[in-house]
UniProtKB/TrEMBL annotation:
<dbReference type="InterPro" id="IPR050287">
    <property type="entry name" value="MTA/SAH_deaminase"/>
</dbReference>
<feature type="domain" description="Amidohydrolase-related">
    <location>
        <begin position="54"/>
        <end position="424"/>
    </location>
</feature>
<comment type="similarity">
    <text>Belongs to the metallo-dependent hydrolases superfamily. ATZ/TRZ family.</text>
</comment>
<dbReference type="InterPro" id="IPR006680">
    <property type="entry name" value="Amidohydro-rel"/>
</dbReference>
<dbReference type="Pfam" id="PF01979">
    <property type="entry name" value="Amidohydro_1"/>
</dbReference>
<dbReference type="InterPro" id="IPR011059">
    <property type="entry name" value="Metal-dep_hydrolase_composite"/>
</dbReference>
<dbReference type="InterPro" id="IPR032466">
    <property type="entry name" value="Metal_Hydrolase"/>
</dbReference>
<keyword id="KW-0378">Hydrolase</keyword>
<protein>
    <submittedName>
        <fullName>Amidohydrolase family protein</fullName>
    </submittedName>
</protein>
Amino acid sequence: MNMLIHNATGILTGLRGDAARSTGSVRIRNGRIAEMGNLSPLPDETLLDARGGVITPGLVSTHHHLFQTMLKAVPTAINKPLEPWLRLVPNTYWNRIDERALGVAARVGMVELLLSGCTTVADHHYLFSELYPYNPADVLFDTARNLGLRYVLARGGTTQARKFDTDEIIPAPTEPLDVMLRRVDDLVRRYHDPSPTSMTRIVLAPNTPTWGATPTELREMAAAARGMGIFLHSHLSETTNYVKFCLETYGMRPLQFVAEHDWVGPDVWFAHLVHMDESEIALMAQTGTGMAHCPQSNCRLGSGIAPAPALDACGGRVSLAVDGAASNEACDMGAEMHCAWMIHRAVQGADAVTAEDVVRWSTSSGASILGYPELGSVEVGKIADLVVHRLDSPRHAGLHDPLIAPVVSGAASVRHVLVGGRPVVVDGAIPGLDLERLLEDARTVVGCLDSTGP
Ligand SMILES: [Zn+2]
């Protein structure tokens, strides 16, 4: 579809410095940005009126667990930190998630992501069990395709059973390394498209390097992923326990440990990294290893505040992510941007991070970390994943600098979303989606999850 987006108040480009802001119209041809500036409509193009709104690149969430969308606000864990929360939420419910529950969870999560301006999501899914009579990957890819979202499956799993402080729970699935790698290879053959415009990709993503695999296996995983031409992802240093465990068990801090096992580089990114010292931040930057910064989840679980501005300041790569909705209660990239803008200022001062920094983390930097260099900025030649944010509510009245509203005003306020130039959100709604029905399905799934105990 050829299109001209016109009448916007301005553009936040996702770039650095003076290039962070622009104005004018955006012309889209064959799914890419063809021209920008003072443009007149051409006879063969559709006009998208962005009057009073702000254009940004499509937002990129680099760490999620979509299955958790049906596990929000579980009462037993609402005030618990990470480890009891893991036991009481994902590890208590994992075996009750049937094909319907996963489909509804993925659909609700992706709908919320799209309505918050997110066009690309990396979903760390780690529940692959012989007990399931369905293939979770097929459910997740089908849901993303139906909604038009770019979907990166970070295929999780573990070779080691995690020990918790009680043995009431059914252990989450584990698999021998050779089985895991064979299954990942199958997924790569079926779903991995390395092209710049790819809608589907696979990443190898064991649950955590410190607990999820042996040191030897970590090296084998890194070599196998690179042999398959795919990226590596995992959790790291979310709590002080990660650091303590690593120091006690391996005699080094987590970043040094993963570096020793070939788990750093521009093809690796980690979620959280809340607890890093200066040497680890420097190692992240030197190696081009990416951070998926999840400030709302880190707040919710009381994990701390990741040193994202420090990593950014020394040339490191920072992206933003919503994490699973079971530790966020939302999949809203607008709210996540607002939290990222606020939280560092609370502890480091009012100049710790700018709205433009947060937009860059959430767009071009996230796209780069996922290996999409042609996504994530509003520039001529780039792929037309774009968002028009509306500024027509009481919240937006009175702004002297309306361009930064998508970050500073709080939760998302999205009017239109394009993926590769194709409209996927139109006037604040997803065409063809029966939202009432989806919300009813979600209520049914929550009822079933709570009534089918182990
Ligand atoms: Zn996570």
